[in-house]
Task: inverse folding
């Protein structure tokens, strides 16, 4: 095979304990904690909905290090969204929630960085969210911890501070659609494959960051994700 241009570099995320996880797609769940849905102007349990980010939006932050992202173009309102990330190890379609755990390889701490002003403009105009959600460096992620070490994560604190000040705090049990239900819905719409990541939604307390800010996200059992904006 002779490629006419250089092949893209594969995107991989380190595993705690060694090895790397190759990323295929990044699925994201919208409005998946009640209080966050309310702060975005919605209420009630609507069916889950999804959007995607390109795999190369990943910013790998090795364990114990502080990652950096550049303040993105076009926006004046860059928001943090701390999220549990689920890494799929075994693919499938129409996966029942009861079987979903078998498809999970591991978990990570992720940030669904959002150009909120652009996302809101697109919402108003009924246009796609890509420019607000799927931009370069919009998906910082911690190393992935195997489910064989954590067990299935259904409860546990999830939180984010900015410059040491609390911004987001909740528990994974507060998810409107838990991870298993999310996998059931997602796999009805797309065939999941090894290497897929699912950003499972963010709790209330989203807000803006500016250049110089340092975000620190934590999820029980998964350690921390520290990212500076420059
Ligand atoms: Mn999100």
Result:
């Amino acid at each position: 095979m002779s490629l006419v241009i250089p092949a893209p570099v594969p995107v991989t995320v380190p595993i705690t304990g060694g090895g790397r996880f190759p990323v295929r797609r990044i699925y994201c769940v919208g409005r998946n904690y009640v209080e966050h849905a309310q702060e975005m102007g919605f209420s009630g349990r609507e069916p889950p909905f999804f959007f995607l980010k390109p795999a190369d939006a990943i910013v790998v932050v090795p364990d114990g290090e502080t990652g950096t992202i550049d303040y993105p173009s076009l926006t004046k309102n860059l928001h943090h969204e701390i999220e549990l990330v689920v890494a799929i190890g075994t693919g499938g379609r129409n996966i029942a929630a009861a079987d979903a755990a078998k498809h999970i390889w591991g978990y990570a701490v992720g940030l669904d960085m959002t150009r909120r002003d652009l996302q809101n403009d697109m919402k108003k105009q009924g246009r796609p969210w890509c420019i607000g959600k799927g931009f370069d460096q919009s998906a910082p992620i911690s190393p992935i911890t195997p489910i064989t070490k954590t067990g299935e994560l259904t409860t546990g604190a999830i939180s984010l501070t900015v410059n040491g000040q609390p911004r987001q705090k909740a528990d994974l049990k507060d998810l409107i659609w838990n991870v298993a239900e999310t996998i059931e819905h997602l796999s009805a719409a797309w065939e999941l494959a090894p290497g897929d990541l699912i950003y499972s939604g963010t709790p209330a307390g989203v807000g803006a960051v500016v250049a110089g800010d340092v975000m620190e996200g934590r999820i029980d059992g998964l350690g921390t994700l520290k990212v500076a904006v420059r």
About this structure: The mean pLDDT is 96. The helical segments are 34-39, 116-125, 130-133, 147-150, 179-189. The domain at 12-229 is CATH 3.90.850.10 (Fumarylacetoacetate hydrolase; domain 2). Residues 28, 81, 83, 112, 199, 201-202 surround manganese (II) ion (CB under 6 Å).
